[in-house]
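Reviewer 2 asked us to include a model.

Predict the structure of this chain.
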Amino acid sequence: RTVLDIGCNAGFFSLRMKERGAERVVGIDSDPRYLAQARFAAQIAGTNIEFRQMTVYEVAALKERFDLVLFMGVLYHLRHPLLALDLLHEHVVGDILLFQTMMRGAQEAGPVEPDYPFLEWSVFDRPDFPKMFFIEHKYAGDQTNWWIPNRAAGEAMLRSAGFTIVSHPSR
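Predicted model (structure tokens):
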């Protein structure tokens, strides 16, 4: 299998994928310091992993679809999260997207109608309705935390981008 690790940080999951037999692993991150750590770890481990400095918004430049795309702990750091999911679906996810994000709010995803009248208000007060919380300044001391979805919003965003949710391995 081929693997793309988006927001690879210091390369932990990239290295694990190579250890598990991935034929090709590409890790991307926007932070050159993390990539330097990842390259160092791969060199010490004696593994051949390609690391590139790029953002999720630049994935079309890879001109490749991957069997497995890891997108873990990235969504809430993005100013434009739905655009990122659209780009992943359109350009790099060939088979499986492993998606993980911080969530807050209701852990239930309630029913959502295909349309609502303009004067409908009550649906927005439901805890199980798709919602994203906007972080204006910082969350947990990190100014790169922008959006935190509830479960319903995370699922709705994935479906909206064209993905099919097949499993919820953990909360």
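Strands lie at 2-6, 24-29, 50-53, 66-72, 93-100, 132-134, 147-149. The CA atoms of residues 85 and 161 lie 6 Å apart. We have added this to the supplementary material.
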